[in-house]
Amino acid sequence: MIKLLLDELHVSSVWNGGILLLAFFTIILYLFILPNGKNHTWWKSVVFIVGVAVAYIAIGSPLNIVARIQFSTHIIQLLLFFLVAPPLLIIGFKTEIIHRVMKFPIAKKIAQILTNPYFVFIIFLLAISLFHLPSVFDAGRMDIYVNYFYMFGLFFLAILFWIPVVTRIRLNQKQKIIYLGASMIALVPVSLFLMFSTDNLYQTYSDLGVFVEALEACFPPDEEPLPASFYETLLPNKPHMEQQLGGKILLIGEVIIFVITMILVSIIEPRLNRE
Which residue windows are transmembrane per the record (predicted)? Predict the structure, then answer.
């Protein structure tokens, strides 16, 4: 039925043109406007563009529509947008512009505060948890602008969260591994809460009226509404099972991402220190 829904909708509803333009603008700005540093290589540009593509897939592709129907898909969206795209963007970013900005004392002071590992660790993980409180989550799903405010606000925090890991300015190798391990452990309670909850936590996945309103919120104004009977077939029969599946995906996904990152840090960091 989800495939049928995607076929019925206009292409502008399935593929977000505004987010696509933002992605193209970001790539153009990156390739042709930002200055190249001495150590910038072509593969970093590739990594950055891949990061932009992952971010677009997360919030601008049909995945975004499916995430409003299936909570488990929302978790996949979360993993891509907050744990995969940000480190790729940081790795590939042109640092020359940052070096120029950091010459201003006030900018350097602000950057030191915002990239403090303890600060961003607490703020990012707390924000992720608060976002998934039922009242907050449902409110964000009901209004497209509030939803984008939530998503891009969390994305900004995700960038700050990954800076201490990807860069070499705040943490050494051992500290990075501890930081990643603590982050992985901190997300486990959220996963377990979703996995073992037997209640329907979110109205956007259990109440038909709220479900329809939340789904239509991401459609263009000129999109013709679909029959209510059609939406009924999309609503999960057992929303709590979707929540449990989402919890399992979150647990497995975050463990894989953080463990792979810890392995890469263990391999790459010593090589960089020898150079």
Answer: 14-34, 46-69, 75-93, 113-133, 145-165, 177-196, 249-268
